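Tip: read the tokens left to right.
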């Protein structure tokens, strides 16, 4: 048995969460290469830019959109601000709030990457089949939404138990 056949067999027997994790690593590497080489932005930075392309928000709001902890977002935003892709602006109504907004340069990069994504060839052969793409898309969205529901339940439980204060 060749090592390629053995690796294929191992994947066939692997648990689904393992496969999702490995596939995520593969896709993340491809995405990172494209973004860093052609646009000078990390995957995490691009996720923030894409989140901001749907509207400005506070650190907490953007962290929630990106599914990262607020403390993780701070370093990403520091880099994006240093590169003049994001600005931090004081909220005119509540001066304690800091809003994150795309700069014109940030908008331009976000639009360019959006165009690349819409014109890019499929990531895998199975994505050329609309039925396969719909199944994969539904799985990914369901996974993200499930995580959001669980996070909301945890916040409610913490608040009700007094831990959220």
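Filled-in amino acids:
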């Amino acid at each position: 048995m060749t090592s390629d056949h053995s690796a294929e067999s191992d994947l066939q027997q692997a648990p689904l969460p393992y496969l999702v994790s490995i596939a995520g690593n593969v896709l993340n590497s491809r995405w990172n290469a494209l973004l860093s080489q052609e646009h000078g932005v990390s995957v995490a930075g691009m996720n923030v830019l894409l989140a901001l392309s749907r509207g400005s928000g506070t650190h907490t709001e953007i962290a929630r959109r990106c599914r990262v902890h607020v403390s993780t977002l701070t370093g990403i935003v520091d880099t994006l601000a240093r590169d003049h892709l994001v600005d931090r602006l004081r909220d005119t109504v509540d001066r304690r709030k800091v809003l994150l907004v795309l700069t014109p340069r940030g908008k331009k990069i976000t639009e360019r990457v959006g165009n690349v994504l819409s014109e890019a060839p499929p990531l895998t052969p199975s994505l050329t089949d609309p039925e396969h793409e719909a199944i994969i898309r539904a799985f990914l969205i369901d996974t993200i939404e499930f995580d959001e529901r669980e996070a909301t339940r945890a916040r409610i439980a913490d608040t009700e138990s007094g831990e959220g204060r």
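Residues 8 and 14 are 10 Å apart (CA to CA). The chain has seven helices and three strands.
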